[in-house]
Amino acid sequence: GFCTNLLLSQTPEHILAQTNNKTEILCELKKEHTGLYWYRWSQEKQIFEFLIFSNALGKTTYGANISQDKFSVHRASPHNSYRLHIGHLHASDNGIYYCSVSQSSQLFLGSGTQISVVDVLPLSSKTTQAPVSKKPLRCITKCKAVSKKGTAWGCLRLPCKRGLLI
């Protein structure tokens, strides 16, 4: 089975990268292991694909049809950290990337990094969020007589609407 746990810390959570550029993912191990695996979940192909394994001595083993020119792993400081470098990015590289260690016949996964490759980067990373309206918030309370003599009043507060005069 696959498990996520506190053995691994993976960053960043999301990467938006431009076609033909490169990127990297950092994975920090909480304790020594014999090596680190990297996998990719492809939503499009619906497959969990083995990319690369790097042992503690820096020797790497690549998955089937995985380009050594595209993927490489480098040990980083502190020495329990690994960086997956991905070059020549294309839409086929879209997916969620996981670093992983094997322990007691189980595969422990990092939290995952979603990579989205686009031809043109947006002007601002905030353009993906809905703009916050600067218009004033206007609310209304409607009141009416609730007794036949008009001496008692009941009020109803209607939902507030941004930028609309009610």
TrEMBL record:
GO biological process assignments: adaptive immune response; regulation of immune response
Main location: membrane
Keyword Iron: no
Protein origin, superkingdom: Eukaryota
Topology in the lipid bilayer: Single-pass type I membrane protein
Subcellular location: Membrane
Protein name per UniProt: CD8B protein
Assigned keywords, A-Z: Adaptive immunity, Disulfide bond, Glycoprotein, Immunity, Immunoglobulin domain, Membrane, Signal, Transmembrane, Transmembrane helix
Xref: InterPro entries: CD8B (IPR042414), Ig-like_dom (IPR007110), Ig-like_dom_sf (IPR036179), Ig-like_fold (IPR013783), Ig_sub (IPR003599), Ig_V-set (IPR013106)
Lineage, opening ranks: Eukaryota, Metazoa, Chordata, Craniata, Vertebrata
Pfam families attached to this UniProt entry: V-set
Single GO MF annotation: coreceptor activity
Entry's Gene Ontology cellular component terms: cell surface; membrane
Residue ranges annotated for the Ig-like domain, each copy included: 12-116
